[in-house]
Amino acid sequence: MSFKATEMNKKPITYKHQAVHNVPVQSVRIQDTFWEPKLKVLREVTTYDVLNKFENDGALRNFDFVAEGAGGFHSGEPWFDGLIYETIRGISDILAVAYDEQLDHRVDDIIERIVRAQAAVGDGYINTYTTLDRPGQRWGENGGFLRWQHDVYNAGCLIEAAVHHYKATGKTTLLKAAVLYANHMSEIMGAPPKRNIVPAHSLPEEAVLKLYQLAQDEPELGAAMKVPFEANDYLELVTFWIHNRGNHEGRYSHGGEYAQDHKPVLEQEEAVGHAVRATLLYTGLTALYLCTGEAAYLETAKKLWDNISYQKSHITGGVGAVHHDEKFGANYELPDNGYLETCAGAGMGFFSWNLFLATGESRYIDKLETILYNIVLAGRSIDGHKYFYENPLVSKGGHNRWEWHSCPCCPPMIIKILPELASYIYAYDNKGAFVNLYIGSESELTIGDVPVTFRQQTNYPWEGAVNITVTPEREASFEVRLRIPEWCDQHVIRVNDQAVSFELENGYAVLSRAWSPGDQIQLALEMPVHLVEVHPIVTTHADKAAIRRGPVLYCLESVDNEKFLNDTVLYTREALRENHMERKLPLNPVFETEYDAGFFDGAVLVRTKDEAGNPLTAIPYPYWNNRSRGTMVLWLQHEHPVQQEGWEQKLYRTIE
Ligand SMILES: [Zn+2]
């Protein structure tokens, strides 16, 4: 069976209390020179690469062992089931945008194997590790260890993949498996007399809420699949999970702060513990607000986001500074060799997106943009089949992308978030449209009852000029909100070549007028090279600055700057100073930019000179470690006056 995305259900999962409506991935076509080649590599290289490597790991064979009921040792880590499901979720979104028969069949074959394994177990439960290696210890009970077994996490990944696969293809095979599984969990987990089982690794929270929303939107699917499909059961399950963190009655703690299981979520105000778990928990918490409208969930989510953004984020958007336990550090603990797992960055991206849906505020998109252009893109090699787990801001030369990993969680996360990019570009509410991201693209939104086509042309992020053609079906009055990025100091907006006045609201320039077919918005975002400093409380970065242009951070690699870099990276500051080897930027460096069409799929490079007059070349941070395996540094020595004022809701800012 084949399908055409355009024929499929185009309604995305939308929660009741969103301030802003999202659009489905398949209603946006990305046409540009920056993202299009990267998404092509994702579709044609990365997806197959990841599926093949899981097959080679024996991770898919685990399902066959369970289906055959003959035993056999589990291959890989207990959470490999979940990683395979996450890959299916991402591929589903890719298929929704660009149908690919081979990929569609490949996924169908895997789904067949999953469903056979689930049927062999019999009651909806499926976790190949527990079934093969720890029978009798489901959910970590009877002497098991849920934090290791990942039963609930894997279940969540399956459920989320199923919703995305159904939305993309209209097929219900995996969805039926997900409903059986969710029903099984609803039966056994909850307040007494049910059992106190909560996820030891978050993700199931939002996953089950997506199923809840689908059950609300399309309750008739239950009869079609011949399974009970009760929305309220799913909402109740997630509410139980959120409220019973910190309640260890009848179960072990999942490691306290490590898994955000130290106290009830609504009492948590500081982001602590394992950063991937944390960001996915907060994503689910925000989704629970979006489903219920309960203000306390949103207030807590915003507090946690503020804590991460203004006290615990690296300049690239990376989070989770500490290697041990892959966790958040203390406030303002932002070492250059921070851990910064690709997955944690993506998790922060999902969290930020949900907060945008809840509030319509641009600062959440600013964060998402920083993460997409820096952490997510750095996480994968340009050729699409090597990956970073950690994303430090300095390297002495030993940090290289790997072909594969004993814990290959990051590649599926990249496969999940990159296709979602299409759905982040535009959004709308009853007053008009939001243009969040500047990416060459075309989309049709319905504003009021008027279909409106938006067509963006831009060379962003290398240039700040954006042209948007607005074509309503007939003349109509509505707002177009253009995000003014946090990094941008100067911007000019014209409509049909005429300067226009506008209000700034929640970080958006609001253009309110009667629009006629073919109206042109010309947005010019000034995009100079900036030097950026960090909050003075971060003492490790006194006398340092980072090069940023637009949303992209720049770094120096030894392949271009051997002398400067090797001295800077390989010796301590004290040693450099003592031996007069300290290399720094002058107070007011002159920057020159050059678009190099041959630098991978094209990039703007930045050239300047160090204090001694030696030439330096800076490249976009996400492209590092693609040409050489040398040293790299992002924060550069730069002595500038320290400003103690004006740091409210800021961790980084341009040096004036
Ligand atoms: Zn990861």
Characterization of this structure:
This protein has 3 domains: 5-134 and 141-424, Glycosyltransferase (Alpha/alpha barrel); 429-525, Immunoglobulin-like (Sandwich); 529-654, no CATH class. 38% of the residues lie in helices and 18% in strands. Strands 3, 15, 16, 17, 18, 19, 20, 21, 22 and 23 form a 10-stranded antiparallel β-sheet that branches. A 7-stranded antiparallel β-sheet has the order 2-6-7-8-14-10-11, with no helix packed on it. Strand 6 and strand 7 form a beta hairpin. The model has no long low-confidence stretch (mean pLDDT 95). Bound molecules: zinc ion (ZN).
Return the CATH architecture of the largest domain.
Answer: Alpha/alpha barrel
Alpha plus pi helix count: 18
Measured by DSSP, the beta-strand proportion falls in: 15-25%
Helix vs. strand class: alpha+beta
CATH domain class of the largest domain: Mainly Alpha
CATH-defined topology of the largest domain: Glycosyltransferase
Give Rg in angstroms: 25 Å
* Number of separate strands: 23
Please, how many domains?
A: 3
* Biggest sheet layout: 10 strands, antiparallel
Distance between the termini: 60 Å
Shape: globular
Bound molecules: zinc ion
- Please estimate the helix content: 25-40%
